[in-house]
Amino acid sequence: MREYEVTVIFQTNLDDEARSTLIERVSGWLTHGEAEGDKPVQDVWGQRRLAYPIRKNTEGYYILFNSQLDPERLTDIERNMQYTDDILRYMIVRKEQ
């Protein structure tokens, strides 16, 4: 297991219920076990202006997840994020030891 930072930008047109459902879904992708301590730590940055338009959106809702993941699962996680329309961008970065 390695530590990763996963930054996700959601569309801002989601209501609170849909956004929390999507956050739980992404958190489920980043969970490596069933224990409560295995869930990723969320840091909600909130709504911010984008540096450039993404799919005609000028603002996005940012969330940073800190998680321990198996490197072999990264392709599945990236595929799930690519096929979710409400996710504008994501970035997965490995933390240094």
Overview of this structure, please?
By secondary structure, the chain is an alpha+beta fold. It has a single domain (2-94), classed as Ribosomal protein S6/Translation elongation factor EF1B (Alpha-Beta Plaits). It is 24% helix and 45% strand. The protein is built from two helices and four strands, in the order βαββαβ. It has helices at 16-29, 74-82; strands at residues 2-10, 41-54, 57-69, 87-94. Strands 2-3-1-4 form a four-stranded antiparallel β-sheet, with helices on one face. The chain is globular.
Short key terms for the protein model shown above:
alpha+beta, single chain, 97 residues
Indicate the radius of gyration in whole angstroms: 13 Å
Percent range for β-strand residues: over 45%
CATH architecture name: 2-Layer Sandwich
Find the CATH superfamily: Ribosomal protein S6/Translation elongation factor EF1B
So what's the CATH class?
Alpha Beta
CATH topology: Alpha-Beta Plaits
The largest beta-sheet arranges its strands as 2-3-1-4
Quick overview:
The protein is α+β, with helices and mostly antiparallel strands. The chain has helices at 16-29, 74-82; strands spanning 2-10, 41-54, 57-69, 87-94. It has one domain (2-94): 2-Layer Sandwich (Alpha-Beta Plaits), CATH 3.30.70.
Which helices and strands occur, and which strands form pairs?
Blueprint: E1 2-10, H1 16-29, E2 41-54, E3 57-69, H2 74-82, E4 87-94
Antiparallel strand pairs: 1-3, 1-4, 2-3
